Amino acid sequence: MKKFVAALCAAGCGVAASGASYAQNSVTLYGIVDTGVEYLTHANRNGDSLVRVPGITGEAPSRWGVRVREDLGGGWAVLSTLESGFNVRSGESGQGGRLFGRQAWVGVQGPLGTLSFGRQYTMTFWALSDADVLGPDIYAGTGSFDNYIPNARSDNTVAWKGTWQGVTAGATWSSGRDSAGTGNSPGQGTCAGSLPGNSRACRQTSAMLRYDAPAGFGVAASWDEQRGGPGAAANLFAGGAPIPLTQSGDTDTRLQLNGYAKFGPVKVGGGWLGRRVDTISPAAPDARTNLYYLSAAWQVQPAWQLDGGVYRMLDSDHDTRGTLVALRSTWLLSTRSALYLQGGYLVNSAHAAYTLSQGGAGSTPGAGMNQLGVMAGIKQTF
Q: How many CB atoms lie under 10 A from the CB of residue 7?
């Protein structure tokens, strides 16, 4: 066996010496395991409280994944990512039970950016990545008021994104955003796959333009449009029934403008996210919502960070409004492990039933009820 292995090595070295070119490969296994215990008031229409281990997110959603990069030389590379979300409470897969429900794509990177194919994030996700400091936290208001925001991804997607001198541009096009028919993202229904003879049904497109300065500030804008089709819907997350989007001419569009700035150990971000739901059928109502937010993070010590945010949702068409305030403290035990304690308070208007917690189903209050949530948790990355 030793002689056989030695012969293979010698043969390989001989081929390399003859001038053949070999690509350089890298494979990275990564993940986050995050959970804790949450207390939530007014978790149903009766006003009862709830104690639970959240099923979806804590400080960040739990996940594991594999990144592969093969450098081809001359600034070219082949990339791929497989990322699976899971529920620490029960061990089940997230995103409708998909094995790689968070990401599953392969692409080519070159001087003009990266072109990729598969299940991917839309440009809504990338435009928001720095402005909302709390990100996909359980009490982050962008996700509490519009649960699509931290789950902005689509199937059947062709994506392009590139960065030059601090300017990043990108776009996605999906021929059918839910090919599995399990619910692509919360509130969208099950607009499954592309339909023969109707190229607009279940289609999704997005675009982004952002600038990140070396001085530590940036601005971003994005546009994201979903077309209707069989099983599609637009959930406004205010306690009312979702708006059916059954025709390919129906649209659910999100626009956003945001920015951030760093001042030493402090980072501040804020922005606006507007949503426009337009339907062809007179029986299906249209909707207009506007979400405003301001968030900040302070690195008090190398191992201690404080952050929080204020979020305001306005929906004049349905006379629903909500204001959410969140505060979080994180203690680093090491470079990979942390403890955190966080809380949030949500004020609903008389007709609104927005939900403070993104920790899973079964925590929606009655209309006009306010909610207080507190969570203590632990997070480990690898």
A: 10
- CA dihedral angle for residue 23, residue 28, residue 29, residue 30, rounded to 10 degrees: -150
3-state secondary structure of 7: helix
pLDDT digits (tens, 9 = 90+) for 162-177: 999 999 999 999 999 9
Gap between the terminal Cα atoms of the chain: 36
Distance, C-alpha 147 to centroid of its chain: 9
Q: Would you say 105 and 68 are in contact if contact means Cβ atoms under 8 Å apart? A: no
> Which pLDDT does position 294 carry in this prediction?
98
Strand pairing report for 76-85 and 153-164: unpaired
Query: Contacts for 109-114 with beta carbons within 8 Å, 24 or more apart?
Result: 109/76, 109/77, 109/78, 109/79, 110/75, 110/76, 110/77, 111/75, 112/162, 113/160, 113/161, 113/162, 113/163, 113/169, 113/170, 114/79, 114/159, 114/160, 114/161, 114/162
- Measured in whole angstroms, the distance separating CA 16 from the mean position of its chain's CA atoms is 44
- Which residues fall within 8 angstroms of residue 287, CB to CB, at 6 or more apart? 234, 236, 243, 275, 276, 277, 315, 317, 318
Residue 20 has what pLDDT?
A: 40
SS3 (DSSP) at 150 = helix
Q: Do residues 120 and 153 touch, judged by C-beta distance below 8 A?
A: yes
Please choose, from the candidates 130, 129, 128, 188, the residue with its C-alpha nearest in 3D space to the C-alpha of residue 154: 188
CATH superfamily of domain region 123-381: Porin (2.40.160.10)
pTM for the model stands at 0.91
Amino acid occupying residue 220: A
Give one DSSP letter per residue of 167-224, joined into a string: EEEEEEEES-S-TTSS-SSTTSB---S-BTTBTTTT-EEEEEEEEEETTTEEEEEEEE
